[in-house]
Amino acid sequence: MNYKNKTVVRSMDILNLFIEHTELTFQEIIDLSGIPKTSVYRMLTSLEEMQFLEKGSDLKYRLGLIFLKFGSLVSSRIDLRQVAYPVMKELHDDVEEAINLIVIQGEEAVYIEKIDLKQKVRLFTAVGRTSPLYAGACSRIILSFQSDEKIRDYVEKTELRKFSEGTITDKEELYKLIEKARNDGYTVSYSELETHTSSVAAPIFDHNGNVIAGLSIAGIEANYQEDNVTIFSKKVIEAANEISFRLGYMK
């Protein structure tokens, strides 16, 4: 049995209009919602009194500041690992490769979650392990989506030390890979942290549009040739986008 309150549902219909519209006039709300004029007037009055909406001197309605308070509370109570894990598990079951979740910590990246139950050959990665932001796909994808100023500051003051045969140690090459990652939405690494290992990573964004983590599919380098990279990159982007969406990110 459906016990939804009609007025509450219609009020939500009005608020949902502001997901795609920054501001709306009274008539625009009527036209877009399809709700009768008298009902819209009553609901707008109530929503304005409760500070869910505010009306400017131009007579246009906008979301009220109360949403900032609620948004801050929600975002502060979201556990990234808890949100990401079911998406990571689904991705792991699909590709049967290791799935890593990495966050930025100072000027390094740290692994905070990993799933590799179905991977035939285990990689030497573990929760708590750190890596430099320039080395490895999952670390570099976080670096790639920082501001231009932060990227320049980091690259120029960082010594690019070699960890394995594929580690990027040339700064011009690193800048090119960062630019490519921004254009493609993902990045790939080959033997950058460990020889004969590869990964494909995509960025995760919070509700403010800031990159807060990287998600990667990782495994033995032989499995990361052109065809598989095409498949893995699409899947890791979709998974990272889903986690971002669950964190409140709206493109």
TrEMBL record:
PANTHER family attached to this UniProt entry: HELIX-TURN-HELIX TRANSCRIPTIONAL REGULATOR, ICLR FAMILY (PTHR30136), HTH-TYPE TRANSCRIPTIONAL REPRESSOR ALLR (PTHR30136:SF24)
- Name of this protein: IclR family transcriptional regulator
- Which species is this record about? Pseudogracilibacillus auburnensis
Extract the Gene3D superfamilies matched here: 3.30.450.40, Winged helix-like DNA-binding domain superfamily/Winged helix DNA-binding domain
Tell me where in this chain the IclR-ED domain is found: 66-249
Keywords attached to this Swiss-Prot or TrEMBL record, sorted alphabetically, are: DNA-binding, Transcription, Transcription regulation
Alphabetized GO MF terms: DNA binding; DNA-binding transcription factor activity
Which GO terms are recorded in the biological process aspect for this UniProt protein? negative regulation of DNA-templated transcription
List each copy of the HTH iclR-type domain by range.
Answer: 5-65
Output the Pfam families linked to this UniProt entry. HTH_IclR, IclR_C
Judging by the UniProt lineage, the source's domain of life is: Bacteria
Sorted alphabetically, which SMART domains does this protein's record hold?
A: HTH_ICLR
